[in-house]
Specification:
alpha/beta; pyruvate-formate lyase- activating enzyme; six-stranded parallel beta sheet; binds iron/sulfur cluster
């Protein structure tokens, strides 16, 4: 379930950002929360012996300053959409939603949410990277919502709004905001622009209901994407992770028919497709913790550092899904993770 409706009962604040404007704004939203000053967020976040699934039911918030990596080069598990200057950043650690297949469960020692409030430093790092980007003929491509869901958190911290405005001014920057949120109205008043892509992750209702805990229903996400399209935003659809389950072929066929009945295919900027995959170490950790979901207990195979379906199944899934999608979108608009 999504946890912030319960409010955060405790907010940990690093002393160095106690006076930061964003810290003040966030604290003002939760007047009843106990405030605990800390020196470094890792004292709380990286404590040994935490129980990720249990913490997910009662999230706490940590406000911190990112002193380390403000920008990462794109990961091999993610899609670069053909952009050579591919980076990402982590403005928030963890997510309000609780998808059974989420790799964050294996990546972080805690489910609590860390918000890095020193946005100005993240902007500075991106400006520097734009100047230094390896291929100056292409923009710097920056998904800002990879290890979290920024739009779901927007009513608490308006990061999407600020990144959209930042990218409006930085003409060599292309950002992607990926989400399962249906809360498009939180961006009210913002004019769309071509270098801020709003990307909705969509799954068949069966998958969303069974494995994507706390997220809005598929039809609500589609409705949000429709509103964004109507306003003129560049909209990306992410069909990721594609899952294999009994009757998957028929379920996905019907799902795409529903999606493209609701959304005008010719207005969609592009789409991404990726089958279930996960870093093998994270997968091992999560599997041990989660006996309550069948999605982690399928006959996956390990190839190098990645766990996914066996190659034959992977190719069958990807091939069929892409054939279905090509009924609606030209193949140049479909980015496939293989
Ligand atoms: S929405 Fe994404 S980041 Fe959030 S729990 Fe689900 S998979 Fe993880």
């Amino acid at each position: 379930m999504s946890c912030w409706q319960n409010n955060f009962s405790r907010i940990y604040v690093e002393k160095s950002v106690r006076q930061h404007r964003l810290t003040e704004n966030i604290l003002a939203r939760f007047p009843k929360a106990a405030r605990i000053e800390i020196d470094n967020y890792k004292e709380v976040f990286a404590r040994a012996g935490q129980n990720f699934p249990r913490q997910k039911n009662r999230l706490q918030l940590i406000l911190a300053e990112e002193k380390g990596n403000l920008l990462y080069t794109g990961s091999e598990n993610a899609q670069d959409f053909g952009y050579p200057n591919f980076y990402y950043n982590t403005l928030i650690l963890n997510c309000l939603y609780n998808c059974d297949y989420c790799y964050l469960q294996g990546m972080y020692p805690s489910a609590n949410m860390v918000v890095f409030v020193n946005l100005e430093d993240f902007f500075g790092a991106v400006q520097k990277a734009i100047v230094e980007r390896p291929d100056p003929a292409s923009p710097l491509y920056l998904p800002v919502s990879y290890d979290t869901d920024l739009l779901a958190f927007e009513s608490i911290v308006p990061f999407c709004r600020q990144w959209i405005e930042f990218s409006r001014k930085e003409t060599d920057l292309l950002i992607e905001i990926r989400t399962k949120s249906a809360n498009f109205s939180v961006l009210k008043g913002l004019e769309p622009h071509s270098r801020a892509i709003l990307a909705w992750t969509l799954s068949p209702e069966f998958v969303a209901g069974k494995y994507e805990n706390g997220t809005p229903r598929t039809n609500q996400r589609i409705a949000a994407a429709k509103k964004a399209l109507d306003k003129g935003w560049p909209v990306r659809l992410c069909f990721d992770p594609i899952l294999r389950f009994p009757g998957w072929e028929g379920a996905y066929r019907q799902f795409f028919a529903e999606v493209f009945t609701a959304l005008p295919a010719d207005k969609i900027r592009d789409a991404s497709v990726g089958v279930f995959r996960m870093n093998a170490d994270y997968f091992k950790r999560i599997k041990k913790m989660r006996n309550d979901t069948d999605i982690l207990h399928q006959p996956y195979e390990r190839e190098g550092k990645i766990v996914s379906y066996a190659e034959k199944d992977r190719l069958e899934l990807t091939g069929n899904i892409c054939d279905m999608l090509k009924n609606y979108l030209p193949k140049e608009k479909i980015e496939i993770w293989t």
